[in-house]
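Methods — Computational structure assignment.
A single polypeptide chain was analysed. Its primary sequence is given first, followed by the predicted tertiary structure written as structure tokens.
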Amino acid sequence: MQIKFIKPLMVVVLLVLCSAITTDAQKKHQNTNQKVLNMDQQKLIIYQLLPRLFGNSSTQNMAYGTIAQNGSGKFNDITGKALDGIKELGTTHIWYTGVIAHASLTDYSAFGIMPDDADVVKGRAGSPYAIRDYYDVDPDLAVDVNNRMAEFEALLHRTHQKGMKVIIDFVPNHVSRGYKSLSKPATVIDFGAQDDVNKAFSPTNDFYYVPGKALVVPPNMDTITTSLTHLQDRKFQEYPAKATGNNVFSEKPKVDDWYETIKLNYGVDYSAGEMNYFSPMPPLWGKMKAILMFWADKGVDGFRCDMAEMVPVAFWNWVIPEIKKVHPKMVFIGEAYNPKVYETYFNKGKFDYLYDKVGLYDGLKKLIRNEANAAVNEITKAWQAEHQGYPNKMLRFLENHDEERIASAGFAGDPVLALPAMVVSATLSGGPVMLYFGQEVGEPAIGKEGFGGDDNRSTIFDYWGIPEHQKWMNKGAFDGALLNADQFELRDFYKKLMHIAATASALQHGEIFEIPQSGNMNNRMYGYIRYTAKQRLLIVVNFDRALAMDAKIVIPEQLLNGVKSVKATALLGSGALSTQGKVITVSLKPVSAQIIEF
């Protein structure tokens, strides 16, 4: 992990104040400098994991392997020891991905759960985003299938006992082709049970139809030829055909459509220019509220709402306040990719947080990859846009189940190259920051697991073991005994960074001053100060792979509250650090970062 030190050049940088809007919440809390914050005030540190992958100790890893061949993690594998290891990363919330029962080829007919048709399942384990029963959990994740809900509830309890909260997925836009709830309360009417299938659209239907046409399953899109192919005979029957989750209103979806899913109908007629029929309230709205309340009543603390922008904002405007009437601390995070509607989904849609994929993530990825057009001004754009419309509301991350692994050959190849970007992601605002399990030990996602192929991602479609994560897991000891020295160092960096992010009041509620580029600070070097009345943090990052950076930073009077001579302490990162009067001198090696308290 060590990068050769290149003798730095010296430059004097005068700090200037960049405009930033201070919210009432920031003003209210800017005098707070406590080391341990109430969780309701605390910056969210989210750790995402798929139980199916997280607890799997099998190393067989056969492409499209069955659960018997490749194994599967269980709820019970996420032990108190595992949770301790997650919490030491500063974690406040765990996002358990793939909890709810979804389409799968694994046969649980002995328990009354039939396998789905391979024509409309991606992979062998199936996508967690093709839900087949919203009132049940994935039987793959249970040691005792008949006791599967109780095993999930026990995990929920263990997580809470460790002082962390639980987020699960809510997938409101679509369900699997084979959706049928076997576990719903007796009073619940299943999706589509009362639909008029002779109408392409009706506000009272749960689905959209292609009347008079049968579904034509697209050709096999497997990227690997395996024994699974014979299961996909293209004989799946659906009449009339239903629209796909990605808004294909045809009986012949293409191989790159979400052909395994069915679009849910919130009262929007897409054939008539997206005309809305929200009064009287479409029956689907009440059904989705009941699903959210079912899981909230079990003690779930938050929902990551899949493809939130594909669901009418009017629904969110109604349902989120409805849930919060009963569960006022419930957190709603929206998966969103269109910055033009962010403010709408915050202000009208009532979301607590939205993804910051199209913005900071995309800009940081270019810097990590050392792309020719990469520049730190993308960081400036991200925080300025956020401060203007939705301060502390964007969820930052460098990995999740949809994105490439940092250590993969297709992204950075070396996880160390992303550390400056991770510092920015964790400290730029008071909004949430997220890690994806295995990120902290440099998991590269090597191999052709099944449906996704060798795509630089850890599969969500198939049974698989995650090799570098398994070294930390160490067959259930969760002690990291199999990690190498570089992995220990990497994980320690994440622990220190996330602890700072979780406890520093300047990062929770502080304002931002930006250090202007000057001297040898090129478009791969960046710095800023996060501050409250009682805490000041200087964050400096160097993405340049060749040039080191030295900076003499003159702290403005308005930040010092009458202090004539500053004292500085490095909280994270190494390198020369000194002070003289109101000047802080820092030295940064290539591809490095520092967080300095003064």
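Note: The chain has 15 helices and 25 strands.
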